[in-house]
Amino acid sequence: MKIVLAYSGGLDTSIIIKWLKDKYNAEIIAFTVDIGQKDNPKILEEKAYKAGASKFYFKDMKEEFVKEFVFPSLKASALYENKYPLATALSRPLIAKGMVEIAQKEKADAFVHGCTGKGNDQVRFEFSFKYLAPEIKIIAPVREWEFKSREEEIEYAKKHNIVVSVSKKSPYSIDWNLWGIAIECGILEDTEKEPPEDAYQITKNPQQAPSKPEYIEIEFEKGIPIGFNGKKYPPVQLIQKITEIAGKHGIGRIDIIENRYVGIKSREIYEAPAATFLHIAHNELEALTMDRELYHFKNIISQKYAQLVYYGYWYTQFREALDNFIEKTQEFVTGKIKLKLFKGNCIIAGRRSPYSLYDTKLSTYTKEDTFDQKASKGFIDISGLPVYLEGKRKKYAKRS
Ligand code: ARG
């Protein structure tokens, strides 16, 4: 049997290699994608081979991740439960896609992931595999193997000379990509406690952030960020730069209780400086350029879109249909939003668009006003007619 494994180099996926070889007598192809998680491919490769893999692939998918997954979700204003920018959720269908390509090239028989049976990631991976390569088997060792704790896994690793980096012992489980970081486990499982400072990887504590604000004017074209402060940047670089700047100002720390698809409520810590910054700016530009009814309706779509991505239904006609709708809504979302970054806050400091629907002559209270106030009487009389009728009935009903 030939297996493609979603390999991270961590404890689970390292011992999975040995475990699979013993149980299925399989040949293991370890596969890692670079989506900005700062792994060293040389070290990963060495570890994979030492653990018993017969091949190792490392694929840079940063650009595809940003263009095909992150930007569509930004255009959709997709925030799960109004807060989580979906960094991990967006990465799973992309990793699965990369694995499918390798599996087809290598004529593999099975996909393996190291997700537990309690999370969302198992669902996201497996839905994606089912859609992209329904003929290939899926194995999830962590859901079925004999190890009951991390200690037992370390024991097994030691016994079989598998290298696991216990050097920098972090009490947290961290999932990292360009769009954000998810941090779980350890003391974070206690909902009553504030996260300790060492849980955070890329953002400054707002208290220690610069006491001088920094202004960033971000430019969008049809809902996509294309540059800032007068300079254009390619997608990946733009996200990296915004992450650095916003992170320095303590922006993007998210601490939430989240509803997992499997029904569990979990306490999640995220760091998403670029996502936080870009969602605020993008929303502001929509507020300026989008028709009222469309803006309100899109808001409903955003909730559905976020839920669908979170649940793992990326590869569906439903998601594609929503993307088509969203694409149309972005037609005039072009312009510049200036933000003031200051101690964890992203404060709107200016908006500009050639397609702005804001008309000073209509909104002003000065003598420049062109709005016909007299016309409002007819507007209220007609649109308020149902309310008037109800009011009359209420009076009548009380009497009888
Ligand atoms: N709860 C988040 C989500 O479902 C983060 C998951 C982090 N995943 C991980 N394997 N550490 O998207």
Give a verbal description of the structure.
By secondary structure, the chain is of the alpha/beta class. The chain has three domains: 2-173, HUPs (Rossmann fold), CATH 3.40.50; 176-352, Alpha-Beta Complex (Argininosuccinate synthetase, chain A, domain 2); 361-399. The protein has helices at residues 11-24, 41-51, 62-75, 87-106, 121-132, 141-144, 150-159, 235-248, 273-289, 292-311, 317-329, 360-363, 375-383, 385-399, and strands spanning 2-6, 27-34, 55-60, 110-112, 137-139, 173-177, 180-184, 214-221, 224-228, 231-232, 253-259, 265-271, 335-342, 345-352. Strands 3-2-1-4-5 form a five-stranded parallel β-sheet, sandwiched between helices. It is elongated. The model has no long low-confidence stretch (mean pLDDT 96).
